Amino acid sequence: MVKLANAFLVVSVLIAAFFLYSLEHKTRGLERDIAKAEKSIIDEREKIKLLGAEWASLTRPDRIQKLAEEQLKLQTLTAQQIVPLAEIGAKVPQTPPLKLEAQNADEIGKMLESLQ
Hey, which bits of the chain come out as E strands? Predict the structure, then answer.
């Protein structure tokens, strides 16, 4: 009976050792995954900082003003261009200046017809 108990204890110790080793192996694998995720987070934060610096560089007011002057040909607003709210109705025409449909000048329609 003692031999059977000893054999049972040896087998149970071997099973416990196997489960403990597999648990340690899984734990180390999860630790590696966590380390990879943390490194990925650090890399993404660095990319965000870099993109933030690039955005700050691209949205500098002097750069935007220079681009607006070069590309849009905008002019500075003058005091004569400011209209009080009560006068807006008088400044806007009642009818559109061009009625393309009424003049039979549908340029896009002509292009589509020529393509057919």
Answer: none
